[in-house]
Specification:
By secondary structure, the protein is an alpha/beta fold. About 35% of the residues lie in helices and about 25% in strands. α1 packs across α5.
Length: about 230
């Protein structure tokens, strides 16, 4: 049972080695390996191209136009964490900028994932501190309303439990439950090996039509070739 307006200090994080290895495969492969679940909505975009990271989730629940709890969550960051911020109602204000990024980075955070807006993008890019957000907005926020830290949240349609693995890159953000991390890693490695073989065949000129055995099903479905 979780309380509201509370900071949970002691959470069980997924092993950092597992989180780091999942980053190598990327969000698309991890999403597929996990059974095509856990993906945040596609409006969650990195603030600069080429950003790629993974880490263990530290969660925070915020209110519209109020970033007070981002300062509270900073104290709970451990090296390798990704702060995942959910909002109680739709908002695109710029909750996060270079000052908070400096604080998060000093604590060892790998990134921020927020279902709202960020700002100071040029400085964040120069700092190489990645963030995935719904919007970029110069509009600032206030500090007036309490939220919660390290409770389960729904961020951009995905359930995130503190300690889960977050994998993020140009393709999106995917959440791997802690209990599924090893299984997902194994499945991702197997999928990557299989795709390597397929890539080699395609590069050699083999058609996907033949490699995937599509000709029979296509004929059965009624596809006709006309010369």
């Amino acid at each position: 049972m979780y309380e509201l307006v509370v900071v949970y200090r002691n959470i069980r994080r997924t092993d950092g080695t597992l989180a780091a290895r999942l980053r190598e495969f990327g969000s698309a492969t991890v999403h597929e390996a996990m059974g095509r679940v856990g993906l945040m909505k596609p409006y969650m975009r990195p603030i600069y191209a080429g950003a790629q990271t993974s880490g263990t989730a530290v969660t925070v629940l915020l209110h519209p136009g109020d970033n007070w709890m981002l300062h509270v969550v900073a104290e709970q960051i451990q090296p390798g964490d990704i702060v995942v911020a959910a909002i109680t109602a739709d908002c695109t204000d710029g909750y996060f900028g270079d000052l908070l990024a400096t604080s998060f980075k000093a604590r060892g955070a790998h990134a921020l994932v927020i279902d709202a807006g960020v700002r100071d993008v040029r400085t964040l890019t120069a700092m190489k501190f990645p963030a995935w957000s719904k919007a970029i907005s110069a509009k600032g926020t206030v500090k007036a309303t309490l939220g919660s830290v390290n409770i389960p949240v729904v961020c951009a349609g995905a359930l995130v439990v503190p300690g889960d693995v977050v994998v993020a890159d140009d393709d999106g953000v995917v959440v791997v439950p802690a209990a599924l991390a090893q299984k997902t890693l194994d499945a991702a490695a197997a999928r990557e090996a299989s795709e390597g073989d397929k890539r080699a065949n395609l590069a050699a000129g083999t058609l996907g039509l033949d490699m995937y055995g599509m000709r029979g099903p296509l004929e059965k479905a009624g596809l006709k070739y006309i010369d």
